[in-house]
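User: Run a structure prediction on this.
Assistant: Running it now.
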Amino acid sequence: MNSISDPPFDEAYKSLFDKLISNSEEINGVKNEVMVECELPLINLKVLEESDPVAREECKSNIARASQQWGFFQVINHGISSEILKRLMCEQEKLFRKPFHNKTKEDEFFNFSAGSYRWGSPTATCITQLSWSEAFHIPLTDILYSNSSPNSLSSTMEQFATTVSTLGQTLADILAEKMGHKSTFFKKNCLSNTCYLRLNRYPPCPIASEIHGLMPHTDSDFLTILYQDQVGGLQLVKDMKWIAVKPNPDALIINIGDLFQAWSNGVYKSVEHRVVTNPKVERFSMAYFLCPSNDTVIESCIEPSVYRKFSFQEYKKQVRDDVQMLGSKIGLPRFLTYDATA
């Protein structure tokens, strides 16, 4: 029985559940495979403050290497206090406890832009395309430049957004530097009015073995910085296999997005990942997305380029069109040059 705070998944996707029951071949076995749990490469960012230039360069090289080999890594001593993270997680839980009908009126109850609250998968045509989750996808401008009177949620989000933005710029600059490009590209194009914070909740799922919390995808940004609780559920593809990421309470998870893969000409990898559901326990996470403005042109910093030039707006439109038509994202393969696909 759903609580008044849970989205009405059963009601909204009844036809998909009915189809699942009547057609046993549709069962996707999300959790039926044997899953290896691993720890992502762990990088101590405190080393970047050391006076030893060799140690600093080694730290930067480790960041670049993990971005090439894994597309994911985790960082400790990242500059965001555990107090802020714990407080934000607490405020986030309280936010998602609100009645569902209040959450759908986010501009009225929470002073977020209309459309910030999202749940499920509106375009899903089969159970494999359904994401059993709800989220507030909030422009940083709603957090940093709100005209409303501050409350505990907004002030905590503002503290987090300010510090995580600095971390995002630092990591992007390091990755650009290790490609031989000490540029101001990210500081010029990835501003607070183009980046986002996303608060996620994955409710307990009665048929967790059949439904994703978040279906397999890559991120359509430069970098994603994630903080998650200790429930677990994040999985990624490594060496053609799905592996489970072991939660680390002291670390933030960083993953490369599509735009960085295109910008680096495929050197840094935007890796497919997903979230699996849990039959008994809800899961919370929060993510920061380092994004450029819509008119920013993404082009490779190395020639010959694997990908053709495209604007961020063009990329997002192609993703939306594909999801609408096919139920899932295609992403970067749509933007390969002719030579690369010959």
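Residues 25-32 have pLDDT under 50 and may be disordered.
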